[in-house]
Amino acid sequence: MALEATYNSQTVEKRWYSYWMEHNYFHSEVDEREPYTIVIPPPNVTGVLHMGHMLNNTLQDVLIRRARLKGFNACWVPGTDHASIATEAKVVAKLKSEGINKEDLTREEFLKHAWDWTYKHGGIILDQLKHLGASCDWERTKFTMDDDMSASVIKVFIDLYEKGNIYRGYRMVNWDPEAKTTLSDEEVIHIEKQGNLYYLNYKIEGSNDTLTIATTRPETILGDTAICINPNDERFTHLKGKKAIVPICNRVIPIIEDEYVDVEFGTGCLKVTPAHDENDKVLGDKHGLEVIDILNEDATLNSFGMHYQGKDRFVVRKEITKELEAIGALQKIETHTNKIGTSERTGAVIEPRLSDQWFLKMKELAQPALDAVLEKEVNLVPEKFINTYRHWMENVRDWNISRQLWWGHQIPAYFYGDGKEDFVVAESLEAAVPKAQKKSGNSALTASNLKQDPDALDTWFSSWLWPMSVFNGIMEPDNKEINYYYPTNDLVTAPEILFFWVARMIIAGYEYRGEKPFNNVYLTGIVRDKQRRKMSKSLGNSPDPIELMKQYGADGVRVGMLLSSPAGNDLMFDEDLCKQGSGFVNKIWNAYRLIDGWEISESLEETDTSKIALDWYRAKFQMALAEIEDHYSKYRISDALMATYKLVWDDFCSWLLEMVKPGYQQPISGKTFRSIIEIFEDNLKVLHPFVPFISEELWQHIAKRTPKEALVVSQWPELKPINETLIKEFEFASEVISGIRTIRKQKNISFKETISLHIINNDNATTTFDAVIQKLGNIDVLTYVSEKIEGALTFRVKSNEYFVPIEGAINVEEEIEKLSEELKYTEGFLKSVQGKLKNEKFVSGAPEKVVAMEKQKEADALAKIETLKTSLAGLQ
RNA sequence: GGGCGUUUAGCUCAGUUGGUUCAGAGCACUUGGUUUACACCCAAGGGGUCGGGGGUUCGAAUCCCUCAACGCCCA
């Protein structure tokens, strides 16, 4: 059946994806082969596919498909993440739009809504990945809140608690007043903002004097519990031991001394608000100050805010400034830029807030994970991220793992009293009872006396176990799957989550299996638009991936994504890249259409041209294959693609097919045809990871294949020794062909018009490719001569001279000019080479090989100059 | 403020240990070409003081110093 004239990506994609699924090629079971494993960075369960996922998953699919072809037992585990904050925020918003407040629901009721939401919107993203061609083992699809996954999280929490690594602490945390939860340090984004510095006067108790402090947050004065001065600051000696009066609330507070105060900043007097600033908290602890929290959990003021109670902190800031001014306590306002923390998820300005939270001690746990990367047990690609990783790991801080949310894994701590330590940690309420009885010494305690901590765990506290828990490696540490698939091979993810996720997975891996979770971490860039803006929903600058695939085909988009995405560098995405990708797919399609249309004749002998052309391409293919393998080994995926692209487009289509192509309506020899097909099949194999759909389509078109013979499970071509001589000889021949084409163009000789070519073979060049030169140059007669041909057009390759006699006079002047230019260039070149060779330091200092090469260059140049000079002499 | 990185053609990027005619690729651009697979094509061509300055070396895009611009991470 003849191929359609144009490639229809949609039909083909549907056909082969279902064929692959039907034959279960993506499923992996433990067997005797060597495994090659990737776990997907689980996307948000209710998320939709964006360009970052496209890039990331294309890369993973390329790696896994190649591994499959190389004979590994390839296993790519897909799944999703419950994304605590993001999902809960969405559910809360949805309920609100229906007039329901989260506060009015019980935990169980709320969770039911959240699960409904998850069932409704969940997993869309995984289906979208199928459009891309992702060859995941869908039978293994996991969700971080599946029962077994949750059990793993709880088990690890209990274990770490029992080892003393998890503790409960009253600490200053990052509070997101919008999501009403704490955030880890990593989830806070610091941005520079223009603000003000307010200079406020405080009266000194028992005198008419005042002191002036500078603050960026005047609303927090209501929480002030001290003024601090530097004991070495002579300006304030008179204040020592006195007390100050906070304006508006008229609280009398001590003036304390501490060298912490920067005498240069502001006025040198610092107001201390321990409840609302991390540094002030430290000062407060040191000096035993009172802690006055003036904020509610939504960042409105509480009763300490007096007449501002119930108003938002930013509103209060404006209003209190006016009041301070009215009572004469405001001295001046200066503009001031400072960095403020904002929530990664909601964008809200973070409030430092004191509260009871759960923390994981990191220092000791982090050590093996730091060593693993420094010793290249785990390779970060590109290596430049090692420094960033080291810096973070060496200064790692304890991880706040609790979140004031319901959607997630509820912390398995059960309180039996109001005391800070009146709790036990257990995997269930039932298990908690005996523990609580023991700890409290109260054997009468029952389940009804216990109250589980309402907080949930940070989502990353479940995803850090991902490479282990997807194989049930936490609950059953010795099961055959975890023993076989772990450690996984490659992890493909974004540098943004190097600390959030990657580092913590390595930590967990060493803690729970004594082994790294993966060998290599390939860090991709961020997908940006042409103006270098990060693609985001809010900016609306991201194309819809599904639409993109409809327009350019999944293969086209895959190629487009990979064309310009070196590891770790941002990708400036441009739809033109997909256009180039679909152009490539079109080229492959048409190359096969040409071959497919040939009439085959078994009685025809293989021509010399075809024979040498095929030999050359086989050599060239090996050379490209070696290069491609090298690129893959270094995770230079876009380079591997480009090498494949050039092999297929330039070498196969533009050179080989043109060389073997029979004349119009002429048949091709059966032998040649079979060789071409064999070669084309190898091309399809190396193409497959990049363009799985069209490669499978053509593969299946070439011959009727059994399910076992599908391309997706075929064998990657073997590396064989490269015939470099043949490649070099062809390069020479291709220069001759270029010379002919240039002459044709310059003299307006149509390609259809045959010409003759006379050669003086000064260089002793091989005649192997003469038949090819004749065919591609449309040469009727190719002869070797010893004397130059008068009145012919000429060109030179190395020191060989080529003559094309044509009708009509040659423009002698032009010829002379052309030759003189070549001569001038060559002489200049010779001079520089001889300059080097005359330099004794060069000859003695440079390696022999380099000197020999320079000598060869000298000889070549001398020979060329000789021929140029004779030619010139002949013309003059 | 501390750390890391980047700067090469109009654009996006390669350039390994300092040494082939090393200044490259893809795209874009210019010119010519279409009854014969593909105009999503073929062929030919132009285009760069390798961010600036200084140094080491027989030899520097590559190593060192310095300045500048940009980006990222951390505080």
TrEMBL record:
Residues bound to ATP: 537
Protein localization: Cytoplasm
Reaction(s) catalysed by this chain's protein: tRNA(Val) + L-valine + ATP = L-valyl-tRNA(Val) + AMP + diphosphate
Source organism of the structure: Cochleicola gelatinilyticus
The keyword Nucleotide-binding is assigned to this record: yes
Protein name (record): Valine--tRNA ligase
Biological process according to GO: valyl-tRNA aminoacylation
InterPro entries registered for this protein in UniProt: aa-tRNA-synth_I_CS, aa-tRNA-synth_Ia, Anticodon_Ia_Val, M/V/L/I-tRNA-synth_anticd-bd, Rossmann-like_a/b/a_fold, tRNA-bd_arm, tRNAsynth_Ia_anticodon-bd, Val-tRNA_synth_C_sf
Protein function: Catalyzes the attachment of valine to tRNA(Val). As ValRS can inadvertently accommodate and process structurally similar amino acids such as threonine, to avoid such errors, it has a 'posttransfer' editing activity that hydrolyzes mischarged Thr-tRNA(Val) in a tRNA-dependent manner.
Molecular function via GO: aminoacyl-tRNA deacylase activity; ATP binding; valine-tRNA ligase activity
